[in-house]
Structures are given as C-alpha cells and as structure tokens.
Amino acid sequence: MRHFPRIAGPVLVGLIVVAASPGAARAGIPIIWGNGDTVAHVANLPEGHPASVEVPGAAVGYKYSRFHIYWCDLWTSSGEYCLYHDNQFIPLGPDAMLAAKKLGMPEGSIRRPIFYLFPLGWVLIGGVVVVATAWNAIQKRNSPEARAEALLKKPLYQEACEIAGAGPNGYENAVSFLVGQGVKPEKAEADMALVLGYLRSLTPPPVPPGTPPAGEAAVDL
C-alpha cells in the first residue's frame, strides 16, 4: 500500500528541483536524499520465543520501501512484517493478524509503524505550514490597515473622524476630543494619524476636468 499525499507530487518535484539547482550547489548546501528499503522496529519477541532462541536479538519489524530527504521519509510503500536481526530478515507478510498468528503472538500485539502511515517528512512539512499560516494571520491582524479598521468600528473613533472632517484644524480637534474622553495624548495622536491616513488611502484621487469616463477612449477631433 502506498502512502503518498495528493500534494506530494508537486512538492516532491519542487524539492528535487531545488536540490538539483545550481544555486544550492553554489551555496555549498549538501542535499542528502535517496531511496531503498528499511526496517522499522515493531515489537520485541516474548521471552523464550523459539525465534529469539534460534536467532538471538531477533525482533518483529516492518520492512518497507521509502524515498527520503535528509533521512526524513517523504514516500513509503510496499510494507510487510518480518523477523529481523541486523541486516537479515524473514518476511511474514503484510497482514498483521496473520503475522501475529505465525509468531504465536496475540492479535493486535503488532501494528504498522506510525511513521510508515504518516512519513516524518510530511509531519515536519505540516508543522511548518501550520506555523507559517499562524504567523501570517498574526501579521495581518497587526497590520496598519487591520488596526485602523478595528478603531473605526468603535463609536468613539467614528465620532472623532466626524470632528476631523468638520472643518479646519480637524485633526487637532479630533485629538483633543479623544483626550477629553480619556485617551492618552500620544495614543490619540497616533490613532488619528493612522485612521485618517487609512481613510485617505480609500479615497480615489480627483479626476482632472475633461477626462473621459472609465472604459471610454478619448477621441481626437
């Protein structure tokens, strides 16, 4: 059975391209990758088990094929249970129940390794994606636009904006209004500068006289 997420193809190709790029070579970054078979430990044999008597140190393992980068598996497939010791193994088949029966062990005592089902490389990639997504959300929430929009939702700042647009010295009057409502002077000045700058960014620039409407081309007579 192959365990290869749907997005693995594009990402895997991207990793290989990066690994083979001249930039990586020029930077002196060693890209270590490869493929082949490996055996993961599954369980120890019960004390006095015939197999452990005949082959001291033998244990139950799970042999599978893999593709890895920096020793982190990205693709696992063709797994089967086995008895192993050092580099030798005896296949027991892919079915856990039958393998346990062959060994005289209770059903459910052996299972496929978790990192065969969920390769470590994808666990790490998933962690990076989660952290990057969370960081991006925090950055957006703390952006000047987001802070200005949050202030404009408050009735106090809505009223301050009306004061700022009511006539000359509007900014100073709005700041004085906020200070009178208990906002610290430094915060009032910074908040009003932020809000008014944000509102100006939403206002389209004035259209010079004689400019044709959008979508219409000027015609030379």
Task: Explain what the structure shows.
This protein is an alpha+beta fold. It has 2 domains: 8-134, no CATH class; 143-202, no CATH class. The chain contains 10 helices and 4 strands, in the order H-H-E-H-E-E-E-H-H-H-H-H-H-H. It has helices spanning 8-20, 22-26, 50-54, 96-103, 114-117, 120-141, 144-152, 155-164, 170-180, 185-202; strands at residues 33-44, 59-69, 72-85, 88-93. Strands 1-2-3-4 form a 4-stranded antiparallel β-sheet. Strand 3 and strand 4 (88-93) form a beta hairpin. Helix 8 packs antiparallel against helix 9. The longest helix has 22 residues, at 120-141. The radius of gyration is 33 Å and the shape is rod-shaped. The protein starts with 7 loop residues before the first helix and ends in a 19-residue tail after the last helix. The relative contact order is 0.08. Mean pLDDT is 80; it is low at 1-13 and 217-221.
Q: Assess the beta-strand content as a share of residues.
A: 15-25%
What structural class do you assign from the helix and strand content? alpha+beta
Largest sheet: 4 strands, antiparallel
Give the strand order of the largest sheet, numbering strands 1, 2, ... along the chain.
1-2-3-4
| Intertermini distance | 75 Å
- DSSP strand tally: 4
- Specify the overall morphology: rod-shaped
Uncertain parts: 1-13, 217-221
Helices and strands, in N-to-C order?
HHEHEEEHHHHHHH
Mean pLDDT: 80
Total domains: 2
Radius of gyration from the alpha-carbon trace, in angstroms: 33 Å
**What is the overall number of helices?**
10
Helix content: 40-55%
